[in-house]
Amino acid sequence: MKFDLIIAGVGGQGIIFTTNVIGRACIKEGKKILAAETHGMAQRGGSVETHIRIGTEFGPLIPKKKADALLGFEPIEALRYSHFLSRKGIAIINTEKIIPPSCVFPGKFTYPDVNYLMSKIKEVFGKVIILNALKLARESGSIMTVNMVMLGVLTNYLPLEKKTIIQAIKELVPEKLIEANLRAFEKGVNFYLTYKS
Amino acid sequence: MEGGVEGAYAYPGTPSSEIMEKLIELSGKYRFYVEWSTNEKVALENAIGSSWGGKRVAVIMKHVGLNVASDPLMSLAYTGIKGGFVLVVADDPFSHSSQNEQDSRIYAKFAQIPCLDPSSPEEANRMASYSFELSEGLNIPVMLRSTTRISHTRSSVEIKMERKKNFSGKFEKNSSQWVVIPAHTRRLRVKLSKKQKHIKEALEKLPYNKLEESNSRFGIITSGVSYLYAKEAVASLGIEASFLKIGAYPPSENMINKFLEKLNRVLIIEELTPFVEEFVRVYTKKQDLHIWGKLTGDVPETGEFSPDTVKEVLSKIFRRPFEEKSILPDLDKLLPPRPPVLCAGCPHRATFYAISQVFGKKAIYPSDIGCYTLGLQMGGVDTCLCMGASITISSGLYKSGEKREIVCTIGDSTFLHTGIPGLINAVYNNSRIVVVILDNETTAMTGYQPHPGTGITAQGEKTHKVSFEKIVRACGVSYVETIDPYNLTESIKVFKRVKEESGVRVVIAKRVCALLAKKLDMKRVRFEVTEECIGCQKCLKFGCPAIEWNGEKAQINEQCSGCGVCAQICPVNSIRKKNNEV
Ligand code: SF4
Ligand code: SF4
Questions:
Q1: Most buried one in A23, A104, B44, B128, CB count within 10 A?
Q2: What residue owns the CA closest to ligand 2's atom 6?
Q3: What is the rounded distance in angstroms from the CA atom of residue B398 to the CA atom of residue B502?
Q4: Are B167 and B243 in contact (CB under 8 A)?
Q5: CATH number at residue A35
Q6: Domains of chain B listed by start with CATH number
Q7: Could you tell me if the CB of B560 is within 6 A of ligand 2?
Q8: Is B327–A45 a contact, with Cβ atoms under 8 angstroms apart?
């Protein structure tokens, strides 16, 4: 099965790590994976986008309007890269904003109203899941696990077994952080289940 | 690794650094030599030494690094090699993290050496291990040219970890080969020229070139990752096309002419320069052939490609509608930009701030390549051109008759890379400039690689730690001061003293990179804004991403690394250490 995914967010949110978990899980299941990341300067709080293609015979970049899913770690970054998402695709968006330095001083730019942004995105895409992943991460014991919450929600759509993803997390997260990360991951999985019903 | 590398040399540079980092990781287990060299020329020459000593070597750099290393490369093609020699160069279309977009294939042509161009990480892996053999077979260095989308793509790749046995080499004296005096080099030049025929024959047979025929009289010639973009674009538009994928340069004349035989229209898709296109135009004798490419303006001349780039080109050629890019057009304008910034607690920010407090807006600030180029956002960077050019542009500006103060900034690793000759030159030729060496004890921007100023080798062993102060003094600088940028008050005092002096003055701003400190888990305190804040926004202007504005007062978020610089800026002393945290 082919699956194209865009992850968008801010440097430092653990996006590259999330990509690695998905990559490891694909290798475990013998699925071909390509993941292209923009980094380098990305760690310095800039906007980050990752293209992940499972089972493609083509190159690493996803064409516009062709992604099956968009995992937005931050509202404006989700919107910035939403042109990659297919109208039939699923958008999963964390509503917790990270104010970019360009908005710190009044006048230059202002951070748009998140509710307005979300209503806009709902107009265009059929399936949109909105959550405060930071809140769920905090509840699971570490605010550094926003990425695992997001991955948990996404797991319901990925062509990968949940248990393989858990195994990949265990292999890649440092020993002492595994528990918090898995708790956050499960929060994401459950969020999806309650959200749906 | 699979090709049996025995020595690897590199200077870090995005998007090439990860190759060496992986090799370092494996070097212990598989016992081969790795080093971070001081610059790319030094790396290449060291690799030459090892190759002439009989070892299989790899030297790794980004495209602009090859400019620095081009001097030895040009003559190495003449002398030839002994142990297999692979030069890995990472190009960066769209300059994601570079000062320009150059096409290293042109260097390969210039040096008359073979060049392999992978279209995927998998192919890069196969090419890398094969290139040692190719190099030894032809007695010439081989370039493996990658681009950002290959370099920064993770993929499942099958690897064979059995190592070829070690080659025990020994340098054999042979002055007619290793000494390029005019009498020898003229002979070697003729030899290199004759060798071209063998190179062509060897490359023609490689599986990296691929001819895929169809019934159509329309064809696409493509190379690198563009091959996959073109395949996807053709599939999604439902166009029939023959394909010629070129994986090795110089491209084979026979192969291209054979491909063109049945065609009347051909499109050439390649990133960067019209390199293949020029070959095609020279090779073909067909009068009735229509060629679309960069030279006709049909394919974008600049930037990075994507499947959409090729789709757009094909849509024009086949007169199909091409959809508008944005799904939410008016929203784009709403989204504030988010460029990278210096980290919270970055020592460079503090140094730039201190400099600006003393030298103001009037002074001229040449700078260099590193995280600190982001000092642009603080008005601390007026020029940035290439590695090491901060000091030299400064002394040049001074000699142009510039009367304003000239204060340049250069990182520790950059200073060791190519800064030193410029400093010697500035002193020698009596310039009047201030040079600030930003010593954050690492090569931060490319991922915290060690350098000679850290006293640690690539493999993490202890070694001699060069002293910046001693180097600077040995260059002839008599006025040298060292500051801790986190001590803002003291730093400002020092810069004030420096301003009063003349000649070449050097300030070493020494403090470990904040992100590295965090990684190393160094103890840190956090700061907070207390009730006394008067809302003057002075600390906000400092630009630390940990400082926010809540509408009335400043506040500090969890990004704070505890540098304490903002506390020294606050005029009413309202920023203080949080006492309940370690
Ligand atoms: S990585 Fe280090 S040197 Fe670079 S911006 Fe961050 S703190 Fe500064
Ligand atoms: S102490 Fe102030 S300047 Fe330093 S990192 Fe924290 S908020 Fe930023």
A1: B44
A2: B560
A3: 12
A4: no
A5: 3.40.920.10
A6: 7-204 (3.40.50.970), 210-317 (3.40.50.920), 347-519 (3.40.50.970), 527-581 (3.30.70.20)
A7: yes
A8: no
